[in-house]
């Protein structure tokens, strides 16, 4: 059975009011670490009345997302009001992680000031400073630190199983509602709606 050890809560709430029930158009994009998350996120979108579009780009990096037209393309297509980002699985062991700060800031510019959350990578052998750099760049109020989570991994010992990713998404959703005031009630059933899911192959 998959289980998860929750992270410590960091900082206070962004707001003490009841969650905003406004329907959001959410664009969830990332690398292969996001694949299990976006599947569970469909359950949350249906439960809470949000529109959801999902883009998983295998073997992608912050550099690829920032220097290509991919994100802009999906922004034009889906006109999101809220972003969820999970990128960095392929950047955990960079020798000079600070060099990626420029790309992260460019991604923030591409999102045009819309609210977003950045989901940190659940490290499996530590990292060289990439996660701290991302947190400092986007701000702790937007960053979900996954490093304290204990997740069951798949056969590659890197990616969480789909069951573990579902529990990971539950922790993220609770944090989002607590910190970001977005409606993210836990789903009572699996999604039956077919939210768009784009699986992009690695760049050759």
Q: How would you describe this structure to a colleague?
A:
There is one protein chain. The protein starts with 24 loop residues before the first strand and ends with a strand. The chain is an alpha/beta fold and 204 residues long. Helices cover 33% and strands 14% of the residues. It has a 6-stranded parallel beta sheet with strand order 5-4-3-1-2-6, with helices on both faces. It has helices spanning 35-48, 62-67, 70-78, 101-110, 130-138, 162-180, and strands at 25-30, 51-57, 82-86, 116-119, 143-144, 197-200. It is globular.
Helix-strand pattern, N to C?
EHEHHEHEHEHE
Tally of individual domains: 1
Strand content: 5-15%
Strand ordering within the main sheet = 5-4-3-1-2-6
**CATH architecture label:** 3-Layer(aba) Sandwich
Say how many strands there are. 6
Assign the structural class, choosing from mainly alpha, mainly beta, alpha/beta, alpha+beta, or little secondary structure: alpha/beta
Radius of gyration: 16 Å
Number of helices: 6
* Fold-level CATH name: Rossmann fold
* Average residue pLDDT: 88
What is the overall shape?
globular
């Amino acid at each position: 059975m998959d289980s998860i050890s929750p992270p410590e809560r960091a900082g206070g709430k962004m707001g003490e009011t009841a969650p905003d029930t406004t329907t959001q158009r959410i664009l969830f994009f990332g690398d292969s670490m996001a694949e299990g998350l976006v599947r569970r996120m469909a359950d949350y979108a249906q439960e809470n009345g949000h529109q959801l579009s999902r883009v998983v780009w295998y073997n992608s990096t912050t550099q690829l997302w920032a220097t290509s037209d991919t994100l802009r393309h999906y922004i034009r297509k889906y006109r999101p009001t809220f972003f969820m980002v999970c990128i960095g699985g392929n950047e955990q062991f960079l020798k000079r992680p600070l060099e990626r700060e420029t790309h992260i800031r460019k991604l923030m510019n591409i999102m045009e000031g819309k609210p977003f959350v950045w989901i940190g990578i659940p490290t499996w052998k530590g990292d060289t400073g990439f996660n701290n750099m991302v947190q400092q760049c986007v701000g702790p109020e937007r960053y979900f630190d996954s490093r304290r989570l204990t997740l069951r991994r798949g056969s590659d010992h890197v990616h969480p199983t789909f069951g573990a990713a579902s529990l990971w998404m539950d922790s993220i959703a609770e944090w989002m509602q607590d910190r970001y005031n977005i409606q993210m009630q836990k789903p009572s059933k699996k999604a039956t709606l077919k939210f768009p899911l784009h699986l992009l192959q690695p760049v050759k």
